[in-house]
């Protein structure tokens, strides 16, 4: 499992298996935000198995399922609430880390008025290009 920081206490990773949640816990994370949709691929058939394992390990678990590029106001608000309320460090994941990064950027822009340059720099350092979300991110702070 390779994680990449977006900001202090918030990291992203790509698809996790249920068993990898043990490594998440061992590496000191306290919370997990999952942005995968149940059944989106064979490696993510059932969110409940992940939630149960996270609870067994004492990890806070939040599921905000989104399709790539389709982020509703409710999704962004839920991610912002997770950032504000969950214990840190927290780990967000989806299939590649891109959806998690997009939601993080929207939440930071809309609810914390972060500058685009700051978000783009952090995302780029984590290996995610936000350019395809530029217009949405520009509008989200207005």
TrEMBL record:
Pfam families: BLH_phosphatase
InterPro entries, alphabetized: BLH_phosphatase-like (IPR005939), Prot-tyrosine_phosphatase-like (IPR029021)
The protein, known as: TIGR01244 family phosphatase
Family matches, as SUPFAM superfamilies: (Phosphotyrosine protein) phosphatases II
Domain spans labelled Beta-lactamase hydrolase-like protein phosphatase-like: 10-107
NCBIfam families to which the protein is assigned, alphabetical: TIGR01244 family sulfur transferase (TIGR01244)
One Gene Ontology molecular-function label: hydrolase activity
Gene3D superfamilies recorded: Protein tyrosine phosphatase superfamily (3.90.190.10)
